[in-house]
Amino acid sequence: MDLTGAEWRRPSSGGGEDGSCIEVAVVAGSKEGSDHVIAMRDGSNPDGPALIFTPEEWRAFTAGVMDGEFDL
Questions:
Q1: Which pairs with CB-CB distance under 8 Å and at least 24 residues apart come from 4-12?
Q2: CB atoms within 10 A of CB 66
Q3: Long-range contacts of range 23-28, CB-CB < 8 Å, 24 or more positions apart?
Q4: Second label for 43, Cα 20 to 30 Å away, from 3, 18, 19, 55?
């Protein structure tokens, strides 16, 4: 998926000045029939890979984060 021109957003709190945070962007594109996707990447490695979520996958992921599903 071409993410050139995506408007990446960083969290308003947290993250270091060196870009050590995640960034997300909502971009036009299709995955499993959706008309847009949510891309997530490592802000300290903007040329690296990005995870691509459908809106439904993004809702499930963020719900898991809020519920502590990924806590160490």
A1: 6/39, 8/41, 8/43, 8/46, 10/43
A2: 8
A3: 27/1, 27/3
A4: 55
Nearest to 22 by CA among 49, 41, 3, 7: 41
How many alpha carbons fall within 13 Å on the CB side of residue 41?
A: 17
Amino acid making up residue 19: G
Quote the pTM value: 0.82
Q: How far apart are CA 12 and CA 48, in angstroms?
A: 22
Segment 58-71, tens digit of pLDDT: 999 999 999 999 99
Give the percent of the chain with pLDDT over 70: 90
